[in-house]
């Protein structure tokens, strides 16, 4: 769909430049104060020999009185959103047939607002932004960034959104309204000359009817004449008069839209052809489809498992198309466990130096048995068995934080499995149905998740074995190092109270120093 989308703050004038052709004026869009457009209006203009309008929700009914068209837009808006300023993303589809229009599609969107009023939800700003994004992100539409002249252009929400979705400015046209309402002595000359915040396609100024003009039934022809007079008589805009006003905006839009369609048509054609080939291939596969065909069930199940495996791998590796900006997930959480939580658990290990000294003393005494220790101050050697026993006991303390790390990783893997099953394990499009109907061909989500969880839990046993093997290897390495170390490296000098067997385990000064 090629078309034009106006963006702007909450003000009705943003819609008027699109719908006031000078050759044949029809005024049928609702106007008023506050937020008037509360649902997207998709307006399709169709060149035809007769003039009438049709609504998608009123099939078969033709509107020849455009005042009734306005009333129907208001009534259909209130039917879905209520009468107290509520909004809805559900569009109103209107098609206008006339010999005085071009074949194109226009989308009138709600103006951007920040403070909720009436029945509007607290997150009105984000809801309207999401609604706008559904349209302006499409590459085949032009964006009209509508901004009032009596506000700071640097704070324009319309320009901000336009630059986000169209950073190169290929699809954005700036429209400046309310030029006649600026403070005396000020003007928007720098903006209209594209010197301040320049756009690739520049800015066009327009002067719309005021609410007083509308209430006074001032017709569009008179309004266009007044607009022309304003630009010709204003000293700051006189030299730009031929490039300002609603008629010039229409001319530019028609030209730019034609050029834009010409530029995007080849890519659109290729995309449609690719989709057509894909659909034809899928139709061919399902031509002889039988729900009870075992081969079809097997193929569908394999597709589910393969898609689940792809989704799981993407979440673990962080290569998915959806990035969580609120918290860590998937592989990032597992990475944090290894690099932050596991070192923290090691540091948190309790180490009682007093108890360690006591154990060393008892181990040495027990190794000596009834053998008498020589006099005080005599240098001795640490018995290999005592040394090895003490070190092995310390090494085994590492096992507990390792197992805790394994449990945390398993929990994260199960959480990732749950996220993948919520997305849906890759059911083929032609087989999807409500949850209650997935009894013959597909495994229900809960059963699928439980099965995968069971398989993930099986990873715990080899992980624990791996931890035990690492501890054993560390112990063996220590044994080899103690065997190869020179005897002088294991020499101990004992306090006389230790050598005389008077160690009571409570004196911190009774220490053994290893050289």
TrEMBL record:
Identify the residues that the record assigns to the Dynamin-type G domain, covering every copy: 1-266
Molecular functions per Gene Ontology: GTP binding; GTPase activity; microtubule binding
Q: Coiled coil located at which positions?
A: none
Entry keywords, A to Z: Endocytosis, GTP-binding, Hydrolase, Microtubule, Motor protein, Nucleotide-binding
Protein name (record)? dynamin GTPase
Tell me which EC number(s) this protein carries.
3.6.5.5
Give the protein family. Belongs to the TRAFAC class dynamin-like GTPase superfamily. Dynamin/Fzo/YdjA family.
Alphabetical list of Gene3D superfamilies matching this protein: Dynamin, middle domain, P-loop containing nucleotide triphosphate hydrolases
Q: Name one GO biological process term.
A: synaptic vesicle budding from presynaptic endocytic zone membrane
What species was this sequence derived from? Eschrichtius robustus (California gray whale)
Quick one: where's region Disordered?
1-21
Xref: Pfam families: Dynamin_M, Dynamin_N
